[in-house]
Amino acid sequence: MEWEQLDLNPRIIAAVKKANFRSAKEILCVSGPDLQRLTRLSKTDVQRLHCSVAAVVRESKPVTALQLIRGECPVLEAGHRLSCACPVLDGLMRGGLPMLGITELAGESAAGKTQFCLQLCLSVQYPQEHGGLNSGAVYICTEDSFPIKRLRQLITQQPQLRPDLPPALIRSRRFSDNIYIEHAADLEALQACVSQRVPVLLKRGLVRLLVVDSVAALFRSEFQADEAVQRSRHLLAFSNILHRLSHEYGAPVVCVNQVTDVVDGPNPGRCDYGLVGSKVLPALGIAWANQVMVRLMLRRLPGQVQSDSRSSATRKLEVVFAPHLPRASCLCGVWEEGVRGIPDDHSDLQPQGSS
């Protein structure tokens, strides 16, 4: 940045140069009192200096939280998202998963979490104009073996799940060749995977999505109840790696999380994030929750939903917290072709016998 870009009195600019500031950006790293001492300028001149530099340096105008909630931030909202391969789910997520940060998907066993992640591994391979990133995915398994049979079934059912896409485009994708599967049996193997092998794939442009299924398995099994501090340190180190990879390569990170039962009775130290009536909460506590940007809960509800004379157990996908999303939810089901949300006004997709 050239000093001439600043809309300031030449006297102020001369005083700044005399104080040996090499660039205008350095001004923002120095407090007002220190600037007064170094430049011998008045408090008013220093305030003008700070405001002028900030106005030039920032790339866009600041926005408020209220503007975010109302969707009045086109500069921020126009960013590309990874599609969930379903209009209803994408509507809940305002386009899909954000490109930066960790998205957590928590839920009980058989809720459909792995199904959702497999669907993302296919969606990421489509071009950007169709909601993908035109790249592959890394899938790290820490509990069970990778569900390869279910993946192959989802691949064959892509025309049914994505009828909006040209059939030729779907046929041109070599889906299974672009999913890199890793198995981590302990924390050491998990750390080695995300710090050594995954960065190589990201750097070469072979992948743009990282899935960890699940993050809770190893951290819950390798630490005892009285080792909370050590577990928090390892969680922080692990999440730092994930954040760095996501921001450096513009890659969404999805972490599946288990749940823990809620014990009745007062517990002022528990943070339930508004899930007051829930009998389960995401595992790993507040240490991990503070590292998550978007938290989703997938629940299995009583009853069935119908689609084209086929039934599925009713699920509910809920946004627990996110910086750009309101607290909301939608019903969904898992069919042969994948996870699909249920439109509120669709007469063919209504819960049957749910309570």
Automatic annotation (TrEMBL):
The record, for PROSITE patterns, names: RECA_2
What is one process in the GO biological process aspect for this record? t-circle formation
Q: Which CDD domains match?
A: XRCC3
Assigned keywords, A-Z: ATP-binding, DNA damage, DNA recombination, DNA repair, DNA-binding, Nucleotide-binding, Nucleus
UniProt keyword DNA repair, yes or no? yes
| Subcellular localization, as worded in the UniProt entry | Nucleus
In the record, what terms sit under GO molecular function?
A: ATP binding; ATP-dependent DNA damage sensor activity; four-way junction DNA binding
GO cellular component annotations of the record:
Rad51C-XRCC3 complex; replication fork
Q: Where is the RecA family profile domain?
A: 78-259
Recorded hits in PANTHER family, A to Z, give: DNA REPAIR PROTEIN XRCC3
Q: What is this protein called?
A: DNA repair protein XRCC3-like
What species does this protein belong to?
A: Cyprinus carpio (Common carp)
Cite the source lineage.
Eukaryota, Metazoa, Chordata, Craniata, Vertebrata
